[in-house]
TrEMBL record:
Every GGDEF domain range: 486-618
HAMP domain span: 355-407
Location(s) in or outside the cell: Cell inner membrane; Cell membrane
Reaction catalysis annotation: 2 GTP = 3',3'-c-di-GMP + 2 diphosphate
This protein's record includes keyword NAD: no
Gene3D superfamilies according to UniProt: 3.30.70.270, 6.10.340.10, PAS domain
UniProt-listed PROSITE patterns: GGDEF (PS50887), HAMP (PS50885)
Highest rank taxon of the organism: Bacteria
Organism (species): Photobacterium frigidiphilum
Coarse class of the protein's main subcellular location: membrane
Protein name in UniProt: diguanylate cyclase
EC number from the UniProt entry: 2.7.7.65
Length: 620
Protein backbone atom coordinates (compact mmCIF):
# COMPACT_ATOMS: atom_id res chain seq x y z
CA UNK A 1 0.00 0.00 0.00
CA UNK A 2 2.77 2.44 0.93
CA UNK A 3 4.64 1.63 -2.25
CA UNK A 4 1.54 2.42 -4.30
CA UNK A 5 1.19 5.93 -2.73
CA UNK A 6 4.90 6.77 -3.17
CA UNK A 7 4.84 5.79 -6.85
CA UNK A 8 1.44 7.26 -7.64
CA UNK A 9 2.02 10.64 -9.27
CA UNK A 10 -1.59 11.79 -8.86
CA UNK A 11 -1.61 11.15 -5.13
CA UNK A 12 1.75 12.88 -4.66
CA UNK A 13 0.62 15.96 -6.58
CA UNK A 14 -2.62 16.17 -4.60
CA UNK A 15 -0.81 15.65 -1.27
CA UNK A 16 1.92 18.20 -2.09
CA UNK A 17 -0.57 20.85 -3.21
CA UNK A 18 -2.76 20.38 -0.12
CA UNK A 19 0.24 20.44 2.23
CA UNK A 20 1.63 23.60 0.60
CA UNK A 21 -1.69 25.44 0.92
CA UNK A 22 -2.08 24.29 4.52
CA UNK A 23 1.42 25.27 5.75
CA UNK A 24 1.16 28.63 3.97
CA UNK A 25 -2.32 29.83 4.93
CA UNK A 26 -2.70 28.46 8.45
CA UNK A 27 0.52 29.95 9.98
CA UNK A 28 -0.23 33.32 8.39
CA UNK A 29 -3.73 33.27 9.88
CA UNK A 30 -2.46 32.21 13.31
CA UNK A 31 0.30 34.84 13.35
CA UNK A 32 -2.15 37.56 12.36
CA UNK A 33 -4.69 36.39 14.97
CA UNK A 34 -2.10 36.31 17.79
CA UNK A 35 -0.44 39.63 16.92
CA UNK A 36 -3.84 41.33 16.64
CA UNK A 37 -4.79 40.27 20.18
CA UNK A 38 -1.42 41.45 21.54
CA UNK A 39 -1.74 44.85 19.85
CA UNK A 40 -5.29 45.15 21.14
CA UNK A 41 -4.29 44.41 24.78
CA UNK A 42 -1.34 46.83 24.55
CA UNK A 43 -3.70 49.53 23.25
CA UNK A 44 -6.14 48.94 26.12
CA UNK A 45 -3.24 49.03 28.60
CA UNK A 46 -2.05 52.41 27.23
CA UNK A 47 -5.60 53.75 27.35
CA UNK A 48 -5.98 52.72 31.00
CA UNK A 49 -2.55 54.15 31.81
CA UNK A 50 -3.73 57.54 30.56
CA UNK A 51 -6.99 57.14 32.53
CA UNK A 52 -5.10 56.35 35.74
CA UNK A 53 -2.94 59.46 35.27
CA UNK A 54 -6.12 61.54 34.87
CA UNK A 55 -7.56 60.06 38.10
CA UNK A 56 -4.30 60.73 39.96
CA UNK A 57 -4.37 64.31 38.70
CA UNK A 58 -7.98 64.67 39.89
CA UNK A 59 -7.06 63.18 43.30
CA UNK A 60 -4.09 65.56 43.48
CA UNK A 61 -6.44 68.49 42.94
CA UNK A 62 -8.95 66.97 45.37
CA UNK A 63 -6.53 66.41 48.26
CA UNK A 64 -4.44 69.54 47.49
CA UNK A 65 -7.63 71.59 47.84
CA UNK A 66 -8.00 70.22 51.39
CA UNK A 67 -4.48 71.32 52.42
CA UNK A 68 -5.10 74.70 50.76
CA UNK A 69 -7.92 75.33 53.27
CA UNK A 70 -5.47 75.66 56.15
CA UNK A 71 -3.14 77.82 54.03
CA UNK A 72 -6.13 80.01 53.24
CA UNK A 73 -6.98 80.16 56.94
CA UNK A 74 -3.44 81.22 57.83
CA UNK A 75 -3.57 84.05 55.27
CA UNK A 76 -6.77 85.52 56.71
CA UNK A 77 -6.13 88.50 58.96
CA UNK A 78 -8.13 87.20 61.97
CA UNK A 79 -7.38 86.10 65.51
CA UNK A 80 -8.41 82.43 65.63
CA UNK A 81 -8.40 82.32 69.44
CA UNK A 82 -10.90 85.19 69.62
CA UNK A 83 -12.90 83.70 66.73
CA UNK A 84 -13.48 80.30 68.37
CA UNK A 85 -14.73 82.00 71.57
CA UNK A 86 -17.49 83.83 69.66
CA UNK A 87 -20.05 81.46 68.17
CA UNK A 88 -21.25 83.88 65.44
CA UNK A 89 -17.71 84.77 64.35
CA UNK A 90 -16.74 81.11 64.30
CA UNK A 91 -19.78 80.23 62.13
CA UNK A 92 -19.02 83.12 59.74
CA UNK A 93 -15.39 81.97 59.46
CA UNK A 94 -16.42 78.36 58.74
CA UNK A 95 -18.96 79.49 56.10
CA UNK A 96 -16.36 81.74 54.45
CA UNK A 97 -13.84 78.90 54.15
CA UNK A 98 -16.45 76.39 52.89
CA UNK A 99 -17.78 78.78 50.23
CA UNK A 100 -14.26 79.42 48.90
CA UNK A 101 -13.31 75.73 48.56
CA UNK A 102 -15.92 73.90 46.51
CA UNK A 103 -14.34 70.41 46.75
CA UNK A 104 -14.68 70.44 50.56
CA UNK A 105 -17.93 68.89 51.84
CA UNK A 106 -17.73 69.72 55.60
CA UNK A 107 -15.68 72.19 57.66
CA UNK A 108 -15.86 72.31 61.49
CA UNK A 109 -14.22 73.05 64.82
CA UNK A 110 -14.35 71.01 68.07
CA UNK A 111 -13.14 72.68 71.27
CA UNK A 112 -11.20 70.99 74.04
CA UNK A 113 -14.44 70.49 76.04
CA UNK A 114 -16.13 68.41 73.31
CA UNK A 115 -18.47 70.98 71.73
CA UNK A 116 -18.74 70.88 67.91
CA UNK A 117 -19.77 73.47 65.30
CA UNK A 118 -19.84 72.16 61.71
CA UNK A 119 -21.11 73.37 58.33
CA UNK A 120 -21.44 71.12 55.29
CA UNK A 121 -22.99 70.65 51.87
CA UNK A 122 -25.84 68.18 51.35
CA UNK A 123 -26.33 69.27 47.73
CA UNK A 124 -24.93 72.10 45.61
CA UNK A 125 -27.79 74.35 46.75
CA UNK A 126 -28.39 73.08 50.31
CA UNK A 127 -26.23 73.41 53.44
CA UNK A 128 -26.48 71.65 56.83
CA UNK A 129 -25.19 72.77 60.24
CA UNK A 130 -24.21 70.41 63.09
CA UNK A 131 -24.04 72.15 66.47
CA UNK A 132 -23.69 70.96 70.05
CA UNK A 133 -26.59 72.04 72.26
CA UNK A 134 -24.19 73.06 75.09
CA UNK A 135 -20.57 74.33 75.30
CA UNK A 136 -19.20 70.85 76.02
CA UNK A 137 -19.73 67.23 74.94
CA UNK A 138 -23.41 66.27 74.92
CA UNK A 139 -26.50 66.43 72.72
CA UNK A 140 -25.97 67.55 69.11
CA UNK A 141 -28.50 68.69 66.47
CA UNK A 142 -28.45 69.21 62.70
CA UNK A 143 -30.14 72.19 60.99
CA UNK A 144 -31.15 73.07 57.42
CA UNK A 145 -29.34 76.40 56.75
CA UNK A 146 -28.32 78.87 54.04
CA UNK A 147 -24.83 79.47 52.60
CA UNK A 148 -23.88 81.51 55.68
CA UNK A 149 -24.91 78.75 58.09
CA UNK A 150 -28.00 80.58 59.36
CA UNK A 151 -31.20 78.65 59.98
CA UNK A 152 -33.00 76.97 62.89
CA UNK A 153 -35.01 74.21 61.16
CA UNK A 154 -33.94 71.01 62.97
CA UNK A 155 -33.35 67.97 60.75
CA UNK A 156 -32.11 65.44 63.33
CA UNK A 157 -30.83 65.13 66.91
CA UNK A 158 -28.44 62.85 68.75
CA UNK A 159 -28.50 62.44 72.51
CA UNK A 160 -24.73 62.46 73.00
CA UNK A 161 -21.71 63.17 70.81
CA UNK A 162 -18.10 63.78 71.90
CA UNK A 163 -15.76 64.62 68.97
CA UNK A 164 -12.73 64.07 71.19
CA UNK A 165 -13.35 60.32 70.92
CA UNK A 166 -13.11 60.44 67.12
CA UNK A 167 -9.97 59.34 65.32
CA UNK A 168 -9.57 62.64 63.44
CA UNK A 169 -9.46 64.56 66.74
CA UNK A 170 -6.97 62.20 68.37
CA UNK A 171 -4.70 62.05 65.32
CA UNK A 172 -4.53 65.86 65.17
CA UNK A 173 -3.17 66.01 68.75
CA UNK A 174 -0.12 63.96 67.73
CA UNK A 175 1.45 66.67 65.56
CA UNK A 176 1.12 70.35 64.62
CA UNK A 177 0.70 69.75 60.90
CA UNK A 178 -2.59 68.70 59.19
CA UNK A 179 -3.08 64.91 59.28
CA UNK A 180 -5.41 62.58 57.34
CA UNK A 181 -7.76 60.20 59.17
CA UNK A 182 -9.04 56.78 58.12
CA UNK A 183 -12.47 56.37 56.50
CA UNK A 184 -15.23 56.94 59.09
CA UNK A 185 -18.98 57.77 59.24
CA UNK A 186 -20.39 61.23 60.05
CA UNK A 187 -21.74 62.52 63.36
CA UNK A 188 -25.47 62.05 62.57
CA UNK A 189 -25.84 61.15 58.89
CA UNK A 190 -24.63 57.75 57.72
CA UNK A 191 -22.16 59.26 55.22
CA UNK A 192 -18.63 57.91 54.90
CA UNK A 193 -15.73 60.33 54.48
CA UNK A 194 -12.10 61.12 55.20
CA UNK A 195 -10.94 64.04 57.36
CA UNK A 196 -7.93 66.34 57.32
CA UNK A 197 -7.64 67.77 60.86
CA UNK A 198 -5.27 70.28 62.49
CA UNK A 199 -4.82 71.14 66.16
CA UNK A 200 -5.24 74.72 67.44
CA UNK A 201 -3.07 75.79 70.40
CA UNK A 202 -2.60 79.01 72.33
CA UNK A 203 0.72 80.81 72.73
CA UNK A 204 1.60 78.63 75.73
CA UNK A 205 1.08 75.40 73.75
CA UNK A 206 -2.23 74.47 75.37
CA UNK A 207 -4.75 72.69 73.12
CA UNK A 208 -7.81 74.84 72.40
CA UNK A 209 -9.45 72.44 70.00
CA UNK A 210 -9.15 70.83 66.57
CA UNK A 211 -10.11 72.09 63.12
CA UNK A 212 -11.38 69.51 60.65
CA UNK A 213 -12.64 69.20 57.10
CA UNK A 214 -14.32 66.26 55.35
CA UNK A 215 -14.19 64.91 51.82
CA UNK A 216 -17.13 62.52 51.43
CA UNK A 217 -16.83 59.39 49.31
CA UNK A 218 -19.80 60.56 47.24
CA UNK A 219 -17.64 63.42 45.92
CA UNK A 220 -14.79 61.02 45.10
CA UNK A 221 -17.18 58.70 43.24
CA UNK A 222 -18.36 61.59 41.05
CA UNK A 223 -14.75 62.17 40.01
CA UNK A 224 -14.33 58.47 39.15
CA UNK A 225 -17.48 58.50 36.99
CA UNK A 226 -15.74 60.98 34.67
CA UNK A 227 -12.95 58.43 34.00
CA UNK A 228 -15.18 55.55 32.83
CA UNK A 229 -14.22 54.78 29.25
CA UNK A 230 -16.75 52.02 28.46
CA UNK A 231 -20.32 51.15 29.52
CA UNK A 232 -19.50 47.99 31.48
CA UNK A 233 -16.20 49.09 33.00
CA UNK A 234 -15.70 49.77 36.71
CA UNK A 235 -13.26 52.20 38.33
CA UNK A 236 -12.44 51.62 42.01
CA UNK A 237 -10.30 53.01 44.78
CA UNK A 238 -9.24 50.39 47.36
CA UNK A 239 -6.87 50.12 50.30
CA UNK A 240 -4.38 47.35 51.03
CA UNK A 241 -6.90 45.61 53.30
CA UNK A 242 -9.25 44.95 50.37
CA UNK A 243 -11.82 47.59 51.39
CA UNK A 244 -13.57 49.45 48.54
CA UNK A 245 -13.16 53.17 49.25
CA UNK A 246 -15.06 54.40 46.17
CA UNK A 247 -16.47 52.76 43.04
CA UNK A 248 -18.50 53.61 39.95
CA UNK A 249 -20.51 50.40 40.54
CA UNK A 250 -23.48 50.85 42.90
CA UNK A 251 -23.05 47.24 44.09
CA UNK A 252 -19.83 48.31 45.85
CA UNK A 253 -21.50 50.99 47.98
CA UNK A 254 -20.92 50.93 51.80
CA UNK A 255 -23.44 48.95 53.87
CA UNK A 256 -24.62 50.35 57.24
CA UNK A 257 -21.73 52.84 57.31
CA UNK A 258 -19.09 50.14 56.70
CA UNK A 259 -16.86 49.85 53.61
CA UNK A 260 -17.45 46.73 51.53
CA UNK A 261 -14.51 44.28 51.74
CA UNK A 262 -13.45 41.82 49.05
CA UNK A 263 -13.32 39.10 51.71
CA UNK A 264 -17.07 39.51 52.40
CA UNK A 265 -17.91 37.43 49.32
CA UNK A 266 -20.32 40.08 47.99
CA UNK A 267 -17.97 41.04 45.15
CA UNK A 268 -17.25 37.75 43.29
CA UNK A 269 -15.50 39.47 40.38
CA UNK A 270 -13.04 41.27 42.67
CA UNK A 271 -12.64 38.18 44.83
CA UNK A 272 -11.49 36.28 41.71
CA UNK A 273 -8.52 38.58 41.00
CA UNK A 274 -7.70 39.98 44.47
CA UNK A 275 -5.16 37.22 45.37
CA UNK A 276 -3.27 38.10 42.19
CA UNK A 277 -3.18 41.90 42.50
CA UNK A 278 -2.96 42.27 46.31
CA UNK A 279 0.77 41.34 46.80
CA UNK A 280 3.03 44.36 47.32
CA UNK A 281 5.22 43.66 44.28
CA UNK A 282 2.16 43.75 41.98
CA UNK A 283 0.36 46.50 43.88
CA UNK A 284 2.59 49.20 42.35
CA UNK A 285 3.19 47.50 39.02
CA UNK A 286 1.08 49.86 36.84
CA UNK A 287 0.26 47.13 34.33
CA UNK A 288 -2.62 45.22 32.75
CA UNK A 289 -3.67 41.71 33.78
CA UNK A 290 -5.96 39.45 31.73
CA UNK A 291 -8.32 36.91 33.29
CA UNK A 292 -11.55 35.07 32.56
CA UNK A 293 -14.73 35.44 34.57
CA UNK A 294 -17.97 33.57 33.82
CA UNK A 295 -16.70 32.58 30.37
CA UNK A 296 -15.76 36.13 29.32
CA UNK A 297 -12.33 37.71 28.84
CA UNK A 298 -11.60 40.66 31.19
CA UNK A 299 -8.77 43.16 31.57
CA UNK A 300 -7.62 44.50 34.93
CA UNK A 301 -5.29 47.51 35.23
CA UNK A 302 -3.76 48.56 38.55
CA UNK A 303 -2.05 51.72 39.67
CA UNK A 304 -1.63 53.43 43.02
CA UNK A 305 -1.95 56.89 44.54
CA UNK A 306 0.24 57.81 47.56
CA UNK A 307 -2.03 59.44 50.14
CA UNK A 308 0.88 59.80 52.57
CA UNK A 309 4.32 58.26 53.19
CA UNK A 310 2.82 55.17 54.82
CA UNK A 311 -0.56 54.89 53.08
CA UNK A 312 -1.35 54.19 49.42
CA UNK A 313 -4.63 53.96 47.55
CA UNK A 314 -5.03 51.29 44.85
CA UNK A 315 -6.57 52.61 41.58
CA UNK A 316 -8.24 49.65 39.84
CA UNK A 317 -9.85 49.41 36.38
CA UNK A 318 -12.00 46.42 35.39
CA UNK A 319 -13.62 45.95 31.99
CA UNK A 320 -14.70 43.15 29.66
CA UNK A 321 -12.58 43.07 26.51
CA UNK A 322 -15.78 43.00 24.45
CA UNK A 323 -16.45 46.63 25.40
CA UNK A 324 -13.49 47.70 23.25
CA UNK A 325 -13.26 44.92 20.70
CA UNK A 326 -16.73 43.73 19.68
CA UNK A 327 -16.48 45.04 16.12
CA UNK A 328 -12.77 44.23 15.86
CA UNK A 329 -13.24 40.63 17.02
CA UNK A 330 -16.20 40.21 14.67
CA UNK A 331 -14.05 41.35 11.75
CA UNK A 332 -11.15 39.15 12.89
CA UNK A 333 -13.36 36.05 13.08
CA UNK A 334 -14.83 36.86 9.67
CA UNK A 335 -11.30 37.05 8.20
CA UNK A 336 -10.41 33.67 9.76
CA UNK A 337 -13.55 32.08 8.29
CA UNK A 338 -12.70 33.48 4.85
CA UNK A 339 -9.13 32.12 5.16
CA UNK A 340 -10.35 28.63 6.10
CA UNK A 341 -12.92 28.71 3.29
CA UNK A 342 -10.28 29.67 0.73
CA UNK A 343 -8.01 26.88 1.97
CA UNK A 344 -10.86 24.36 1.52
CA UNK A 345 -11.65 25.66 -1.96
CA UNK A 346 -7.98 25.45 -2.97
CA UNK A 347 -7.69 21.87 -1.71
CA UNK A 348 -10.89 20.83 -3.46
CA UNK A 349 -9.98 22.37 -6.81
CA UNK A 350 -6.45 21.01 -6.50
CA UNK A 351 -7.76 17.48 -6.03
CA UNK A 352 -10.27 17.84 -8.84
CA UNK A 353 -7.69 19.34 -11.19
CA UNK A 354 -5.21 16.57 -10.45
CA UNK A 355 -7.75 13.88 -11.32
CA UNK A 356 -8.88 15.77 -14.43
CA UNK A 357 -5.33 16.00 -15.76
CA UNK A 358 -3.99 12.56 -14.83
CA UNK A 359 -6.88 10.39 -16.10
CA UNK A 360 -6.24 10.95 -19.84
CA UNK A 361 -2.48 10.78 -19.32
CA UNK A 362 -2.84 7.31 -17.80
CA UNK A 363 -4.94 6.18 -20.74
CA UNK A 364 -2.46 7.73 -23.16
CA UNK A 365 0.40 5.96 -21.38
CA UNK A 366 -1.33 2.62 -21.66
CA UNK A 367 -1.91 3.18 -25.37
CA UNK A 368 1.72 4.26 -25.90
CA UNK A 369 2.93 1.09 -24.14
CA UNK A 370 0.72 -1.04 -26.43
CA UNK A 371 2.08 0.72 -29.50
CA UNK A 372 5.66 0.21 -28.23
CA UNK A 373 4.92 -3.50 -28.15
CA UNK A 374 4.04 -3.39 -31.82
CA UNK A 375 0.30 -3.29 -31.46
CA UNK A 376 -0.11 -0.70 -34.22
CA UNK A 377 -3.79 -1.25 -34.37
CA UNK A 378 -4.13 0.08 -30.85
CA UNK A 379 -6.20 3.22 -30.95
CA UNK A 380 -6.50 5.99 -28.41
CA UNK A 381 -10.16 6.76 -27.88
CA UNK A 382 -10.77 9.85 -25.81
CA UNK A 383 -14.28 11.30 -25.83
CA UNK A 384 -13.14 14.86 -25.19
CA UNK A 385 -12.12 17.82 -27.21
CA UNK A 386 -9.11 19.01 -25.23
CA UNK A 387 -5.36 18.90 -25.83
CA UNK A 388 -5.07 15.18 -25.03
CA UNK A 389 -7.99 14.34 -27.35
CA UNK A 390 -6.33 16.27 -30.16
CA UNK A 391 -3.03 14.42 -29.49
CA UNK A 392 -4.81 11.07 -29.70
CA UNK A 393 -6.48 11.89 -33.03
CA UNK A 394 -3.61 13.51 -34.86
CA UNK A 395 -0.12 14.76 -34.15
CA UNK A 396 -0.59 17.18 -37.04
CA UNK A 397 -3.07 19.11 -34.94
CA UNK A 398 -0.46 19.76 -32.23
CA UNK A 399 -0.50 23.51 -32.73
CA UNK A 400 -4.30 23.64 -32.32
CA UNK A 401 -3.94 21.53 -29.23
CA UNK A 402 -1.38 24.01 -27.81
CA UNK A 403 -3.73 26.91 -28.54
CA UNK A 404 -6.60 25.16 -26.75
CA UNK A 405 -4.34 24.46 -23.80
CA UNK A 406 -3.32 28.13 -23.58
CA UNK A 407 -6.99 29.17 -23.68
CA UNK A 408 -7.73 26.93 -20.75
CA UNK A 409 -4.76 28.39 -18.85
CA UNK A 410 -6.14 31.89 -19.48
CA UNK A 411 -9.49 30.78 -18.09
CA UNK A 412 -7.83 29.60 -14.90
CA UNK A 413 -5.83 32.84 -14.71
CA UNK A 414 -9.04 34.92 -14.91
CA UNK A 415 -10.57 32.84 -12.14
CA UNK A 416 -7.45 33.38 -10.01
CA UNK A 417 -7.58 37.13 -10.67
CA UNK A 418 -11.23 37.20 -9.63
CA UNK A 419 -10.45 35.42 -6.37
CA UNK A 420 -7.53 37.79 -5.72
CA UNK A 421 -9.78 40.81 -6.29
CA UNK A 422 -12.33 39.40 -3.86
CA UNK A 423 -9.61 38.84 -1.24
CA UNK A 424 -8.24 42.37 -1.79
CA UNK A 425 -11.73 43.83 -1.30
CA UNK A 426 -12.11 41.98 2.00
CA UNK A 427 -8.67 43.20 3.15
CA UNK A 428 -9.63 46.77 2.26
CA UNK A 429 -12.82 46.54 4.37
CA UNK A 430 -10.79 45.16 7.28
CA UNK A 431 -8.25 48.00 6.97
CA UNK A 432 -11.04 50.62 6.95
CA UNK A 433 -12.49 49.18 10.17
CA UNK A 434 -9.06 49.17 11.83
CA UNK A 435 -8.51 52.80 10.77
CA UNK A 436 -11.92 53.78 12.19
CA UNK A 437 -11.06 52.12 15.50
CA UNK A 438 -7.68 53.88 15.52
CA UNK A 439 -9.39 57.25 15.03
CA UNK A 440 -11.73 56.50 17.95
CA UNK A 441 -8.77 55.67 20.21
CA UNK A 442 -6.97 58.87 19.11
CA UNK A 443 -10.03 60.97 19.97
CA UNK A 444 -10.25 59.27 23.38
CA UNK A 445 -6.56 60.05 24.03
CA UNK A 446 -7.12 63.71 23.06
CA UNK A 447 -10.08 63.85 25.46
CA UNK A 448 -7.93 62.43 28.27
CA UNK A 449 -5.20 65.01 27.59
CA UNK A 450 -7.81 67.80 27.69
CA UNK A 451 -9.08 66.55 31.08
CA UNK A 452 -5.52 66.21 32.47
CA UNK A 453 -4.13 69.63 31.44
CA UNK A 454 -7.03 72.09 31.26
CA UNK A 455 -9.63 73.51 33.64
CA UNK A 456 -13.05 72.18 32.47
CA UNK A 457 -14.91 75.43 33.27
CA UNK A 458 -12.64 78.10 31.74
CA UNK A 459 -10.74 75.92 29.24
CA UNK A 460 -7.40 77.38 30.32
CA UNK A 461 -4.50 75.48 31.91
CA UNK A 462 -5.33 73.94 35.29
CA UNK A 463 -3.24 74.58 38.40
CA UNK A 464 -0.98 71.55 38.10
CA UNK A 465 -0.19 71.95 34.39
CA UNK A 466 0.42 75.71 34.73
CA UNK A 467 2.93 75.37 37.57
CA UNK A 468 4.72 72.43 35.88
CA UNK A 469 5.12 74.45 32.68
CA UNK A 470 6.14 77.55 34.69
CA UNK A 471 8.89 75.59 36.52
CA UNK A 472 10.11 74.08 33.26
CA UNK A 473 10.46 77.45 31.51
CA UNK A 474 11.98 79.17 34.57
CA UNK A 475 14.57 76.54 35.58
CA UNK A 476 15.54 74.98 32.27
CA UNK A 477 19.24 75.81 31.59
CA UNK A 478 20.10 77.59 28.32
CA UNK A 479 23.88 77.17 28.42
CA UNK A 480 26.75 75.35 30.17
CA UNK A 481 27.26 78.19 32.64
CA UNK A 482 23.82 79.62 33.40
CA UNK A 483 23.72 83.24 34.65
CA UNK A 484 20.78 84.88 36.48
CA UNK A 485 19.24 86.28 33.28
CA UNK A 486 15.72 87.68 33.14
CA UNK A 487 13.20 84.99 32.06
CA UNK A 488 9.83 86.78 32.21
CA UNK A 489 7.03 88.12 34.43
CA UNK A 490 4.62 86.27 36.71
CA UNK A 491 1.12 87.74 37.14
CA UNK A 492 -1.24 86.65 39.95
CA UNK A 493 -4.83 87.88 39.33
CA UNK A 494 -7.80 87.70 41.69
CA UNK A 495 -11.35 88.81 40.84
CA UNK A 496 -12.43 91.54 43.27
CA UNK A 497 -15.37 90.86 45.61
CA UNK A 498 -16.13 87.55 43.90
CA UNK A 499 -17.87 86.06 46.96
CA UNK A 500 -20.29 88.99 47.16
CA UNK A 501 -20.83 88.71 43.40
CA UNK A 502 -21.70 85.00 43.79
CA UNK A 503 -23.99 85.71 46.74
CA UNK A 504 -25.82 88.44 44.82
CA UNK A 505 -26.19 86.80 41.38
CA UNK A 506 -25.77 83.10 42.11
CA UNK A 507 -23.15 80.49 41.21
CA UNK A 508 -24.31 80.08 37.61
CA UNK A 509 -23.59 83.75 36.88
CA UNK A 510 -20.42 83.35 38.95
CA UNK A 511 -19.26 80.54 36.62
CA UNK A 512 -20.09 82.76 33.62
CA UNK A 513 -17.97 85.49 35.20
CA UNK A 514 -15.01 83.10 35.54
CA UNK A 515 -15.31 82.06 31.88
CA UNK A 516 -15.71 85.69 30.82
CA UNK A 517 -12.67 86.74 32.89
CA UNK A 518 -10.44 84.03 31.39
CA UNK A 519 -11.64 85.02 27.87
CA UNK A 520 -10.79 88.70 28.44
CA UNK A 521 -7.34 87.83 29.83
CA UNK A 522 -6.59 85.49 26.92
CA UNK A 523 -7.56 88.17 24.38
CA UNK A 524 -4.97 90.52 25.91
CA UNK A 525 -2.10 88.00 25.69
CA UNK A 526 0.19 86.92 22.87
CA UNK A 527 0.54 83.36 21.62
CA UNK A 528 3.75 82.93 23.66
CA UNK A 529 2.05 83.90 26.95
CA UNK A 530 0.39 81.28 29.19
CA UNK A 531 -2.64 81.63 31.50
CA UNK A 532 -3.93 79.14 34.07
CA UNK A 533 -6.62 78.91 36.74
CA UNK A 534 -4.84 78.15 40.06
CA UNK A 535 -7.74 78.62 42.50
CA UNK A 536 -11.44 79.40 42.74
CA UNK A 537 -11.31 82.96 41.35
CA UNK A 538 -7.50 83.16 41.23
CA UNK A 539 -5.58 83.06 37.93
CA UNK A 540 -1.91 83.23 36.94
CA UNK A 541 -0.18 84.48 33.78
CA UNK A 542 3.39 83.84 32.63
CA UNK A 543 4.81 86.23 30.01
CA UNK A 544 8.37 86.34 28.66
CA UNK A 545 8.33 90.05 27.86
CA UNK A 546 11.51 91.86 28.92
CA UNK A 547 10.66 95.33 30.17
CA UNK A 548 8.47 96.32 33.13
CA UNK A 549 6.55 98.71 30.88
CA UNK A 550 5.51 95.80 28.68
CA UNK A 551 4.31 93.80 31.71
CA UNK A 552 2.45 96.87 33.01
CA UNK A 553 0.83 97.31 29.58
CA UNK A 554 -0.52 93.73 29.67
CA UNK A 555 -2.03 94.22 33.16
CA UNK A 556 -3.51 97.62 32.20
CA UNK A 557 -5.01 96.13 29.04
CA UNK A 558 -6.77 93.45 31.10
CA UNK A 559 -8.19 95.98 33.58
CA UNK A 560 -9.29 98.31 30.75
CA UNK A 561 -10.99 95.46 28.88
CA UNK A 562 -12.85 94.40 32.04
CA UNK A 563 -14.00 97.97 32.65
CA UNK A 564 -15.12 98.62 29.05
CA UNK A 565 -16.84 95.28 28.43
CA UNK A 566 -19.77 94.67 30.81
CA UNK A 567 -20.49 91.09 31.82
CA UNK A 568 -24.25 91.63 31.39
CA UNK A 569 -26.98 94.27 31.81
CA UNK A 570 -29.72 94.15 34.42
CA UNK A 571 -33.38 94.55 33.60
CA UNK A 572 -32.91 98.28 34.44
CA UNK A 573 -30.21 98.57 31.74
CA UNK A 574 -27.48 98.78 34.37
CA UNK A 575 -24.15 97.50 33.03
CA UNK A 576 -22.55 94.97 35.40
CA UNK A 577 -18.77 94.75 35.18
CA UNK A 578 -16.13 92.95 37.19
CA UNK A 579 -12.66 94.07 38.20
CA UNK A 580 -9.50 92.38 39.38
CA UNK A 581 -6.41 93.02 41.45
CA UNK A 582 -3.08 92.05 39.92
CA UNK A 583 0.32 91.36 41.45
CA UNK A 584 3.31 91.22 39.07
CA UNK A 585 6.95 90.28 39.68
CA UNK A 586 9.97 89.70 37.39
CA UNK A 587 11.44 86.17 37.43
CA UNK A 588 15.01 85.08 36.78
CA UNK A 589 16.67 81.73 36.26
CA UNK A 590 16.75 79.76 39.53
CA UNK A 591 14.33 82.05 41.42
CA UNK A 592 12.50 80.52 44.39
CA UNK A 593 9.14 81.43 45.98
CA UNK A 594 7.97 83.29 42.87
CA UNK A 595 4.33 82.62 43.71
CA UNK A 596 4.72 83.95 47.27
CA UNK A 597 6.34 87.17 46.03
CA UNK A 598 3.70 87.70 43.35
CA UNK A 599 0.95 86.88 45.86
CA UNK A 600 2.37 89.54 48.18
CA UNK A 601 2.09 92.10 45.40
CA UNK A 602 -1.50 90.96 44.84
CA UNK A 603 -2.40 91.58 48.48
CA UNK A 604 -0.80 95.03 48.23
CA UNK A 605 -3.09 95.76 45.29
CA UNK A 606 -6.06 94.50 47.32
CA UNK A 607 -5.09 96.62 50.31
CA UNK A 608 -4.68 99.70 48.11
CA UNK A 609 -8.30 99.58 47.03
CA UNK A 610 -8.46 96.76 44.43
CA UNK A 611 -8.93 97.12 40.66
CA UNK A 612 -5.26 97.96 40.15
CA UNK A 613 -1.80 96.58 39.49
CA UNK A 614 1.16 96.33 41.87
CA UNK A 615 4.51 95.54 40.20
CA UNK A 616 7.55 94.58 42.29
CA UNK A 617 7.57 97.69 44.43
CA UNK A 618 6.71 98.61 48.01
CA UNK A 619 3.85 100.79 46.92
CA UNK A 620 1.20 100.60 44.18
Amino acid sequence: MLTFFTKNLGWRIQFTLSLFVFITAVPIGLIWYTSSEQVLIKTIEKLYHHSSEVIKSQLDDFFTEANTVYKHQSRLDINLIETINDRDNLLAHIANILNHHHDIDYYYFANNQGALLSLGKIQDTQYIRFESDQPNAGPISSYNVDFNGNGEHILDQKSFFDPREREWYQRALEQDQPVWSNIYSGAIENILGISLSKVLKDTDGNVLGVWGLDLTLDSVTKQLQKSKLSPNSTVLLMNKNGEIIASTNNKHAPIDGQLLNVASGKTPLLQTIWPTISPAEYYKNNSAYQFRYEGEQWVCFTSYYPLSESRDILVLFLTPVSDFTSEFIETMHFAIIITVLLVGIAIYYGSYGTKYILTPIIRLTHSAEAISQGKWSQQIHLERQDELGQLARSFNKMIEHLKSYINQLNTHQDETARLNALLEKQNQKLEERVQARTRSLTEANQKLQQLAYYDPLTNVANRRYFWDEFERQLHQPTGPAESPLHRGWLFILDIDNFKQFNDQYGHVVGDDALKYFSHVCTSCLSEQDMIGRIGGEEFAIWSNVIHQAEAKAIADAILSALALQPLFETEHNEAITISASIGVIPCQYGDKNCYARADKQLYKAKAAGKNQVCINTHRC
